[in-house]
Amino acid sequence: MNIQEAIRTRRSIGKVTQEPIAKETLEQIIESAVWAPNHRLTEPWRFFVLSGEGRSKLGDALARIALAGVEDPNSPEHAEKAEGARKKALRSPVIIAVAAAPSDRHDILEIEEIGAVHAAIQNMLLTTHALGLGAVWRTGEPCYHPYMNEAFDLRPQDKMLGFIYLGAPDMTPTQGKRSDAASKTTWIDA
Question: What is the C-alpha to C-alpha distance for residues 138 and 161, in angstroms, rounded to an integer?
């Protein structure tokens, strides 16, 4: 598949089978990520591949975050909420958690480090699609919670930027629709 086809046909696939994914395939997906552009070649990305029981690292963090700040975390209502959060980590056979670990150099801007990791994630999504697999990039408030950093042994200045849930597709992707690029483009030539 050529790059234009991959870009235009890739869709978020939120429903996948629990069929295992070969380690070599996962390595190929991650290898594509490290070729993303990054300012000053800082390579600020960090990858955590969760499968099998390893997914409980994410599930436990999600449950802990769901209970953060509640008065009685042991109440049946809150226990059910925590269990629902924990089960989110079981939606695919593999999850790749992707974090940004910005350089400590004074001449490096954090926003550029985060942008580089976002580019790495896009490379991963396109490679996953080209390999015939399905993936969805999940983010949200729990992603950025300090407990998530703690769960993955990240520094306070590091940021978890998302979880790529991937597997064999178990749904038909929707048709893509975007605004024409011309409607978002201003040409300045004088």
Answer: 9
Q: What secondary structure, in 3-state letters, does 127-186 show?
A: HHHHCCCEEEEECCHHHHCHHHHHHCCCCCCCEEEEEEEEECECCCCCCCCCCCHHHHCC
How far, in Å, are 11, 129, 177 from residue 5 at the CA level?
A: 12, 10, 14
pTM attached to this predicted model: 0.95
Query: pLDDT tens digits for 34-48?
Result: 999 999 999 999 999
Within 10 Å of residue 64's Cβ, how many Cβ atoms? Answer: 19
Tell me the β-bridge partners of 12. none
Cα–Cα–Cα angle for 8, 142, 44, rounded to 5 degrees: 65
Kindly list the distances between the CA atom of residue 132 and the CA atoms of 16, 21, 38, 164, in Å, as whole numbers in the listed order: 12, 12, 27, 15
DSSP reduced 3-state for 85: helix
Those residues whose C-beta lies under 8 Å from the C-beta of residue 15, and which sit 6 or more positions away, are 134, 169, 170, 171
